[in-house]
Design goal:
Blueprint lengths: L2 H11 L3 E4 L5 E8 L5 E7 L4 E9 L2 H8 L3 H17 L3 E7 L2 E12 L5 H26 L9 E3 L5
Antiparallel strand pairs: 1-2, 2-3, 3-4, 4-6, 4-7, 5-6
Helix pairs in contact: 3-4
Length: about 160
C-alpha cells in the first residue's frame, strides 16, 4: 500500500472520511467529518512530504454582532487571548480580523511522512479540532452565548 492508500484506510477505519476533493495544488485532498458535524480537510500539497490537517470556521453573524457591541479594549484583549491560547495547542492558525472583529479562523497542523502513523494522524486531527473548540469557547466566554440553534459554520475550503 502506498502513502495515500494507508491514510485513506485509516480515515475509513475511523469512519470520518466523507469525500475526495479535486485540488490542483495537492496530490490528494480529503474532506473528513471529525467529530460528527465538524468538517475538516486532510491535504497532501503537491511536491511536499507532509499532510496538512485544517479546519476553517466562519464566525456566526450573531457572534460578530456581540463583538460589535463590546468595547474596543474587550475586542483587543480577546484577540490577544485567542492568539495566546491557540499557540498553546502548537498549531498554526490564520485569523481574519476586520476592525478588531474576528470574522473567520483557520487552524492547521502538519505531519511529515516520516512520522505519519494512524496514531499521529488522529492525534493531529484531534488537536486541530480542540484548537477550534478553544476559539468557540473563548468567543462565548468573552462575548456571551447565542441561541443553541445557531452555530458557527464549517467551510469545506482549505487555505493552503
Amino acid at each position: 500500500m502506498d502513502f495515500e492508500d494507508n491514510l485513506r484506510e485509516w480515515l475509513m477505519d475511523e469512519e470520518c472520511l466523507l469525500e475526495k476533493k479535486f485540488d490542483e495544488n495537492a496530490d490528494f485532498h480529503y474532506i473528513i467529518e471529525f467529530p460528527k458535524e465538524n468538517i475538516m480537510d486532510v491535504v497532501k500539497p503537491t511536491g511536499k512530504d507532509c499532510v496538512i490537517v485544517a479546519c476553517a470556521t466562519q464566525v456566526a453573524q450573531e457572534h460578530v454582532n456581540l463583538m460589535v457591541a463590546s468595547t474596543p479594549q474587550v475586542r483587543r484583549d480577546f484577540i490577544l487571548d485567542l492568539q495566546f491560547g491557540l499557540n498553546s495547542y502548537l498549531v498554526d492558525f490564520e485569523l481574519s480580523i476586520n476592525q478588531d472583529l474576528l470574522q473567520q479562523f483557520v487552524v492547521t497542523d502538519t505531519v511529515y511522512e516520516d512520522g505519519l502513523s494512524k496514531n499521529e494522524l488522529m492525534k493531529t486531527i484531534k488537536r486541530v479540532f480542540k484548537a477550534k473548540l478553544h476559539c468557540i469557547f473563548l468567543i462565548d466566554k468573552t462575548f456571551g452565548s447565542i441561541s443553541p440553534n445557531t452555530q458557527t459554520s464549517n467551510q469545506n475550503d482549505m487555505f493552503v
